[in-house]
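hey can u check if this looks right to u? its 277 residues, i copy pasted from the old doc so theres a chance i mangled smth
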Amino acid sequence: FAGWSLFGNTAFITYTQGLNLLLNTFFGPAINAARGIAVNIQAHTNQFITGFQTAINPQITKSYAAGEYNYLHSLIFRSSKFSYYLIFIISLPIIIEAPTILRLWLGEYPDYTVIFVRLILMSTIINSMANPLITAIKATGKVKVYESIVGGLMLTILPVSYIFLRLGYPPYCVFIIHLVTELVAQNARILIVGKQIQLKYKEFIKNIVVRIVIVTVISSILPAYIHLQICHNASTSLINCAIAVICSAITIYTIGLNSKEKKSITRLVISKIKKNG
C-alpha cells in the first residue's frame, strides 16, 4: 500500500516539476513565470473545496468499512458533485474574465498567462471529482492497479509534452495535454474504483457527469456572450464576473441538485439567515 501510494505521489511530482523544466528549456524563465501565476491561482481556487472534502472523507472510509455500499455511493456522488460545483462557481468568472482580473491584480503579466490560467483551471475543475474516488480506493487497501494505471497516465504527460514541444507547438500545448490526460484519468478512476466498491460506471456518468455537463454549458452561455459582445473595460468585466457567479448559482440550484439536496440547501440558507438576523 505504502509503496504504490508513493508511486502515485512520485508521478504527480515528476510531471509537475518536469513541466517546469520543459517550459524553461524550450521557452525560458518568462514562460515559467506565467505558469507560476497560473499554478498560484489554481492553489487558491482549490482551497474552496479542501474543508468540504476533509469533512466527508472519514464518512466515505467508514461506510466502506461497514459494508454500507448504497450510502458509500451516495457520499461519492454528493462529494464529487459539490466539489465540482464549488470549484466551478469560483473558476467560471476567472476563466471568462482572466485578462481583466490579471491586469487588475498584476498590471503587466507574461505572455500566455491568460491561456495558462484558463486551461489549468479547467483541469482543476475536472480533477475536483477525483478526491472521493481516491478516498474510496484507499479505504479498500487495494491500490496497486489504481496507482499503476492512473499514476502511469499522469506520467505520460511529460514525454508527450516533450514530443509536442520538439515539433514546434506553442507552450500552452502542455496544458492541453494535461487537460486531456485528466479526462482520461478520471474515467480510469471511475472504472477501477467502481469495480472495488460495486459502483457501476454508467451510474456515475448518469448521476454526476451528465448533470454537471448540463450545468457547465448553461451557466457559461450568458457570461461568455457578454464577454465577447459587451465587455470593453474593467467595470463591465467585473460586472460580468458577478453575472457568471449568479448564473452558476441559479443553474446549480435549479438543474444541478436533486430535490433532497435543494431542501437541504434551502434549510441551511434559512438557518444561516435566522442566525445572523
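The chain has a mean pLDDT of 88.
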